[in-house]
Automatic annotation (TrEMBL):
InterPro entries: cNMP-bd_dom, cNMP-bd_dom_sf, RmlC-like_jellyroll
Organism: Apibacter adventoris
Coiled-coil portions: none
Designated name of the protein: Crp/Fnr family transcriptional regulator
Amino acid sequence: MYQSLYSIVTDKLKLSDHYYDRLIEVSEQRFFTNKEYLLQIGKTCSFIGFVEKGYLRSFREKDGEEFISDFYVPGTFITSYRSFINQESSAGAIQSLENSEICWLSFDTYNLLLNESSEWFKLGKYISDTLFIKKCMKETSLLMDSALDRYKLLLQTYPHLEQHVAQYHIASYLGIKPESLSRIKSLNLGH
């Protein structure tokens, strides 16, 4: 049983166990090894996943340099949402940073559920709201916060991330160089 997903479906969305059972019935359990891609740049995202185990990242590339746009940790949804919704090419890639387990819901199955019952729109709204809020928080932080404050927000948002993710990935997410992250960490002694 995916305990975190069960809690979202039954506690947060107030749906019955039947909905959780149906979701598991139509989903796939997929495993990804370290550095394996769930989605390549330019491909269409055909899934919404729920991270049961593992740490993953989404990133874009420009002039051969990678820019991390997000991390996905256990208990979170993972997708390239614009690509998924519009069924268009993704500007970014999604890659596993360690062995990961994902509860995988395909585009077709997601739409099948929405057509089965209007109750499934609660799940769709929860996923879109969660992804939107996450995006807004990062965007606001990048525009308004110092690198130190962005780092503190990252630690608050993803408490165990540093044990699972390379420092240069964290620096990329924060929009700074790895040397700058080292300086910030030495200043942030209270962490």
